[in-house]
Amino acid sequence: MYGFTLSGPQMLFFSVAHSMPLLVLAIWLAMPTGALWLAQSAAALAWPKYRFLAGVSALSAATFLFALASQAGLLATYDEWSSSEAARTPLCLLGLVTTAMLMRESWRALRHSAPFNPPAPAMLQDRTLSTSRTLPHSPAAVYNAFASASVLAAWWGPAGFSNTFEIFEFRPGGRWKFVMHSADGKDYPNESVFAALEPAAKVVIEHVAHPHYTLTVTLKPAEQGTLLTWEQTFKDSKTAQGLRHMVEPANEQNLDRLAQALAKNEGAV
Fold first, then answer.
1. What is the pLDDT of residues 27-56, one digit of tens each?
2. Nearest CA to 49 among 189, 171, 198?
3. Domain range spanning residue 143?
4. Could you give the count of Cα atoms lying within 13 Å of 178 in the half-sphere of its Cβ?
5. In this structure, is residue 132 part of a structural domain?
């Protein structure tokens, strides 16, 4: 009867795995989804920038690594726990759960990994919210409004928001961790990475906290100062379209505040 319980199939799996560990290892390594997710999970936990690029949350990466470590531990200690009536059932159930976790996360990796699903131009447009503004200031002055922590903190976010910066590393690959405070007293933790910086030309910010997006700000000299283009690309079109009603007016307010900060700084010079 034991073979028909939930733990029975898992015991069979571990019996085979124990007797032929190299075969099981070869099967695991031969699974491109599992190998891909393992590499992504390790990289995602180590580097926030990669976490965004791969579309991997820290929780998902930790979940997969926990499941894999549990499987390895159960295989390595098979002789000890398989002979114990008290330990056998709960540990086999753990094996079943972690097997399901491995399969689910591996499938998600295959479906959502960028190398397997490069976005088509139309898809990229669907998940990008953009605006532009001509500012009566030089590209260098506008760029410096991003480069200065005190100036950026003064204008970042929609109307009524203030900011507390915890980490501000304005360099390619640098972290930007801060808390936005709304007018009604709510706090919104944020974490981003400065993915690319071109003085007086471009600022690329990857928001690695939820919701994931890449903000690309380009600066081009214009007759009246600087043409600023603001492109916010979300992970998927569903998120972008669902947030459009909030993000678009918020971005306009953000640029209003930028213009005010630039005028204030120019007047103080």
1. 455 455 555 656 666 666 666 655 555 555
2. 171
3. 122-268
4. 21
5. yes
What's the pLDDT tens digit per position in 212-248?
A: 999 999 999 998 899 999 999 998 888 999 999 999 9
What's the predicted TM-score (pTM) here?
0.58
Buried b (16+ CB within 10 A) or exposed e, 140-165: ebbbbbbbeeebbbbbbbbeebebee
Q: Can you say how many angstroms the Cα of residue 106 is from the centroid of all Cα atoms in its chain?
A: 17
12 assigned to some structural domain: yes
Q: Are residues 68 and 127 in the same domain?
A: no
| Identity at 220, one-letter amino acid code | K
Please answer whether residues 218 and 130 qualify as being in contact, where contact means their C-beta atoms are separated by less than 8 angstroms.
no
Query: Which of 91, 112, 133 is a domain's end point?
Result: 112
145/242 same-domain check: yes
CA 227 to chain centre: 29
Tokens standing for residue 154: 């003064």
User: Regarding beta strands 174-181 and 213-222, do their DSSP bridges make them parallel or antiparallel, or are they unpaired?
Assistant: unpaired
Clarify whether residues 129 and 227 are in a common domain: yes
